[in-house]
Specification:
InterPro entries: SPEC3/Stum. It is a multi-pass membrane protein. One of its GO terms (cellular component) is membrane. It comes from Nycticryphes semicollaris. This protein is mainly α. It has a domain of 82 residues. Helix 3 packs antiparallel against helix 4 and helix 4 packs antiparallel against helix 5.
Length: 132
C-alpha cells in the first residue's frame, strides 16, 4: 500500500468530510432499565464499595454478600417500592448465584462486574444530594 494518497483520492476524501450535514439539534436521552437483581445493588459509602469490589475480585460473591447487610443498615437502592428484607434476599440470591457459578468462571466475572457497579453507584451517590 502506498502511504501517500494518489491525485484524486485526497481531494475526494477531504470533500466528503467537509460537506457533512449540520446537526439538527435533537437531544436524545438514554435511560438504562435494570432488572430486579441489578436494581437491588445498594448505594454504599465509597470505602465500603471498594472493599466489596476487592472481596468480589478474590472470593466471588463475598462482597455481594457483605453488601446485602448494608441494605439492612439503611443503604438505599433503585427498588424504593420493595421492603428492605426483600432487597436483602435479592442481594443474597445474587451472591449465591456468583458463588455457585464461579466454578465455570461466569460467577467470578459476574462478581467483578457487580463490584464495579457498587463502586460506580457509590461515586454517583457522593455527587448526588440525599433525596427525601
Amino acid at each position: 500500500m502506498d502511504p501517500f494518497p494518489k491525485e484524486g483520492e485526497g481531494a475526494a476524501a477531504g470533500e466528503s468530510s467537509r460537506g457533512a450535514a449540520p446537526s439538527s439539534g435533537v437531544v436524545v436521552q438514554v435511560r438504562e432499565k435494570k432488572g430486579p437483581l441489578r436494581a437491588a445493588i445498594p448505594y454504599m459509602p465509597f470505602p465500603v464499595a471498594v472493599i466489596c469490589l476487592f472481596l468480589n475480585t478474590f472470593v466471588p460473591g463475598l462482597g455481594t454478600f457483605v453488601s446485602a447487610f448494608t441494605v439492612l443498615c439503611g443503604a438505599r437502592t433503585d427498588l424504593p417500592d420493595r421492603h428492605k428484607c426483600c432487597v436483602f434476599w435479592l442481594n443474597i440470591a445474587a451472591a449465591l448465584i456468583q458463588i455457585l457459578t464461579a466454578i465455570v468462571m461466569v460467577g467470578w466475572i459476574m462478581s467483578i462486574f457487580w463490584g464495579m457497579d457498587m463502586v460506580i453507584l457509590a461515586s454517583k451517590s457522593q455527587l448526588m444530594p440525599l433525596q427525601a
